[in-house]
Amino acid sequence: MILEIEHIWPFLLMLPIVAFLYASVGHGGASGYLALMAIFSFAPETMKPTALLLNLFVSGIAFYHYSKAGFFNKKLFLSFAIASIPLAFIGGMIEIEATIYKRILAVLLIFAILKTLNVFGKESEQIKHVKLWQGLIIGGIIGFFSGLIGIGGGIILTPLILLLHWGNMKEAAAVSALFIWVNSAAGLIGQVTSGVEISSQAFILVAIALFGGFFGSYYGSKKFNNKALRQLLATVLIIAAIKLFFA
After folding, report:
1. How many domains does the chain fold into?
2. In terms of residue numbers, what domain contains 45?
3. How far from chain centre, in Å, is Cα 56?
4. How does pLDDT run across 16-63, given as a tens digit for each residue?
5. CB 183 within 8 A of CB 84
6. pTM to 2 decimal places
7. What confidence tens digit (pLDDT) does each residue in 177-226 have?
8. What is the DSSP string of 164-211?
9. What Cα–Cα distance (Å) separates residue 192 from each residue in 43, 80, 185, 198, 203?
10. CB 24 within 8 A of CB 217
């Protein structure tokens, strides 16, 4: 059971902070939740569905705030979502060996660390239009790994949008929020279809994460930024990545 894990209280205290930080940039926070679960030694079979469930709710509230603020680009979103949704479902149905799962997750956490520290993905005033074939390929690949690992894919999509000048920072956040939501939903449905059961205690974690996610997305859509907290999150992700690599 989730709440019977040793030292669960520090995890519960850190969970809303992670949700706050990720939601502030339009993300659901799955890579952060998975990092925390790795540090606190959650079972791999519990990590994936729990992260997707948390992602579903937090990215939903993040999208609400960013969309309400007028930053959502529907055409940009559809370019990636058309292929990502079915492939996220397929990825969610696939179960992989625990060691391989941890290694892939550790590699993907590197993207989260780089994005958190703003190492790449700077905003540009020269916006380009994404071509359909580019959106289908990129969205499909990200969608598949989103379902396979239990993330929404925003931590990869956002830097790509900024690097390739397909949108500004706020547009990337709004598009990524809904992209994360649809991928998380598809991946979770794929999980349930394959016979995975979601613990009822996971919904307690949802309530805790939503508290941080609500305020994070609200202030994020209002140009909120906090460098110190981002560095703290990056530290947590680095520790988790190291733990996963050598677990």
Report:
1. 1
2. 2-245
3. 9
4. 999 998 888 788 888 889 888 888 888 878 888 999 999 999 999 999
5. yes
6. 0.85
7. 999 999 999 999 999 998 888 888 889 999 999 999 998 888 777 755 55
8. TTSS-HHHHHHHHHHHHHHHHHHHHHHHHHTT----TTHHHHHHHHHH
9. 17, 24, 11, 8, 16
10. yes
